[in-house]
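To whoever is covering the structure queue this week,

Two jobs came back overnight. Logging them here so there's a record in the thread.

Job A:
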Amino acid sequence: MGRVLAVVVVVLLAAAYVVVQLVRPDPPVSASAIRLAATMPGTPSSLAWPSQGEAAVGVEGTSLLVTHGTQTATPLASVTKLMTAYVVLHDHPLAATATGPTISITATDVSTYQSDKAQGDSVVAVVTGEQLNELQALEGLLIPSGDNIASLLAAWDAGTETAFVAKMNAAAKELGLTGTHYVDASGVAAGSESTAASQTRLAMADMTMPAFRAIVAMPQVTLPVAGVQYNVDAELGKNGIVGIKTGWTTTAGGCFVFAATTKINGRTRTVVGAVLAQFGTTAQPSALTEAFDAATSLLVSTDRAVEQDTVVHDGEVLGHLNVPWSTSVPLEASRSVTLTGLPGEHVHTTVRLPSRVSAPLAAHRRLGSLVVRLGAERVTVPLDTARALPGTPLSWRLTNV
């Protein structure tokens, strides 16, 4: 009898053990990250910054923007027209091959032309009754840099130049162009000013507009009354330069905002930059030529100084799920990350994983993320489980207390 009772007790205890093991919570699954250390490849190389004024250069489509000088507000001269074109194209978008609505030249427009011409400003000839489409007006604004065309477009867009200038300043604020303020649409009046960094950012915004990009690449254009007008950008077509805008007054000095295509690690990219407040020297009396020379030197040095590298590869293991009843499950990057920066720049990475993980999980389940930062650029990459994570098996439950 005692032996039977002992067997019963053992069976009951075993059953109780099985029940307890079956109903107890799954053991915790912990997530651990792999430390990722990365720097941009290549040998650091100095950029050829101008010896005067201020400058900035960046790569289109990236957050790379390197600056030189004080980056305090400085007069813009005709570089102001970059914002004039931005506002007009924002309000009246044009496809690359479109001409847009027609603008009729009035007696007031002719009076403005005559007044600007008498003051020695850069002008485009117009006559009363002439018809210019939006594209032609923008060509007159950006290629020969017609000050009177800036006034024409301002009134056409906003009714008055005062109302248009308000739009320009609102756009500058919206784009985050620090140190930027406009008082007119052409840059002739004293007071329109900005920094090289802000004008580089504005140029990048302009270059996203197909019509702008096409216009600034034109060496010349023919207008109905003014006839053939040549691009003031004498560097167009040299060193890969595809635009953008010049400016000069005795107060502003020579100013040049440029864009150029170049090869970075075998990939064609567009470099955008600005040099402002360049004044003539004994060796080079022309302030505008001084700006051209400074921009060219900066551009050539940028080709050597900028690198592009894939710092994270698709499928790269960046963490693990540590599972008591199975081998660990890798967590993989769901895509590659390619960055553009200066050689030797440190790439900051942070792997973010959940504090609690419950099994089972399917393969390729999104779980956590990798945050990659280089300068102002920030990229978030989701992480995926490399394979399925099964629930706790019965055999493991019964053999692990």
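Job B:
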Amino acid sequence: MPEDASAIKPAAEKFIQRGANIVIGTAFGYSDSFKDLAAKYPDVAFLNGSGTTNGTNLESFYGRTYESQYLCGMAAGAASKTGKLGFVAANPFGVVNWTINAFALGAQKMNPNATVNVIYTGAWNDPIKERAAAAALIDQGADVIGQHVDSPTPQIVAQERGVYGTGHHRDLRQFAPKATLCSSVWVWDRFLTPELKKVMAGGWKPAQYGAFIEMKDGGTDIAGFGPAVPKDKAAQITAEREAILKGKQIYAGPLADRDGKERVAKGAVLSDADLWKMDWFVKGVVTQK
């Protein structure tokens, strides 16, 4: 559905007129419309995946995608022959930057010298720009392509060019089975099922600042390992996944940015507020326009 209010509001109100008392959205662009709708319909519960607005009957929620992207980065680092990785990203927002940094940290766990070259397309879904970005990264020497965009185009280009990639949103082996090492996938049912039960039980109170969902509670996970990930490396990735489920923090200190500035002190963990506004990059990340 288009993300402008002229489309969102009538659609939501049609559901409400039919008796719906829970409305779920799925886009960053729905945020303002959902805020207006929540104020207009205080007896309806509104939940919006990827949203940024919250209220007494409105909760925006988002998965901690950096957890699954860290694991994808490990797969990329394990499969890369050169240590040169590329990443096709949409917009330079905090929730995109945290996936880039986590991808790099995961790759560097497998290969401390791994680098990640990033190109932003400026759009969530623009296959033409994504194709150009992926091709440019491969031309610059990347032999694995990561992504945080909405289409499978970077993985398709990777397969066409004979390199590897890691997917985002869903298992992209469907589109590029030879290239896709693994994918960061949404598992919203693990979060929404218990959350909706809370709403139905009455007395539901949305998280004040929205909900960042950890892997153990249902946000994102990883799907599949391609044959280019050696079995011993896949076992290492699986062990890291188990550690994350048990509470391992990706952004735990000491951690510095690529300029050497300390961003997380030893013994500390990056706060949600700092995650949300992340505008810095770890060592080894090179950003392009």
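Note for Job B: DSSP finds nine helices and 13 strands in the chain.

Please reply-all if you pick these up so we don't duplicate work.
Q.
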